[in-house]
Amino acid sequence: MTDTAMTTETAVQDDASLTEDQRAYLEKINAMKAETKHLKFGTRLLDSTMNASTRVLRGLIRDT
Predict the structure, then answer these.
(1) In which domain, by residue range, is 44 found?
(2) Within a domain: residue 6?
(3) Sign of CA dihedral 46, 52, 53, 54
(4) Is residue 31 part of a domain?
(5) CA–CA separation, 23 vs 12, rounded Å?
(6) Is residue 51 part of a domain?
């Protein structure tokens, strides 16, 4: 579990006045935050792969 998820979970436990709907929204927010982190990592990985491929192709073109 991430720090953000634990912080939100702790906040939910501390505030007993939250409704079920509010708790459900907090859970959805935590899930979206986790997904965003994965998407950011995937985007960086794709960018670095494309940059490496471009360098290789430029090297091949230069060598021919």
Answers:
(1) 19-63
(2) no
(3) positive
(4) yes
(5) 7
(6) yes
- Alpha helices by DSSP H, listed for 1-64, are 3-14, 20-63
HEC profile of 42-57:
HHHHHHHHHHHHHHHH
Strand ranges in 1-64 using DSSP code E only, listed in sequence order = none
Q: How far apart are the first and last CA of the chain?
A: 52
- The residues near 2 (Cβ < 8 Å, ≥ 6 apart) are 30, 33, 34, 37
- pLDDT(64) > 80: no
Q: What is the pLDDT of residues 1-51, one digit of tens each?
A: 555 555 555 655 666 778 888 888 888 998 999 889 888 888 989 999 999
42: its two tokens: 């995937």
- Is 4 among the domain residues? no
